Amino acid sequence: SKLWNDGNKPFIIATIDKDLDNIPGWHYNFVQKHKYFVTIPEATKNFWTQILVGDVADNIKGVKGIGPVKAAKLLADCSSDSQYYKACIRAFMDKEGLSQVDAINRVDENGVLLWIRRYPNEIWEPPKP
Question: Distance between CA 37 and CA 3 in Å, rounded?
Fold first, then answer.
């Protein structure tokens, strides 16, 4: 996997918005004056964590009672998108009492809403089994 960029030109994401930590590469928080690098595995974990946590500012409903710390525990053993996906579905089923179909729908909806495009016309799709 290569990092997102614009025609192989160097880039840095300058923002204070933690949502953009879902994109691998160099980041710069201009308020804290802090430069840091997000790896592909970190960006992946950030994305799946946000699916569980949701985003109040963007009106995206996560799993009730799950914040970043609980999400980290639920996703600790995951290393592939398929494992993350299954863990998120399980969390929605266990914590919200949803059926498997309803849990899948919530995870899929959150994934589409939270995915930040790296390429034109890119739409998030759940991992294939």
Answer: 11
* Joined tokens for residue 96: 């919200």
Contact of 6 with 20, CB cutoff 8 Å? no
Residue 115's alpha-carbon distances to 23, 75, 106, 118, in angstroms, are 9, 18, 14, 9
Q: Give tens-digit pLDDT for 58-117.
A: 999 999 999 999 999 999 999 999 999 999 999 999 999 999 999 999 999 999 999 998
DSSP symbols for 22-86: GS-EEEEETTTTEEEEE-HHHHHHHHHHHHHHEEGGGTEE--TT--HHHHHHHHTT--SHHHHHH
pTM, to two decimals: 0.89
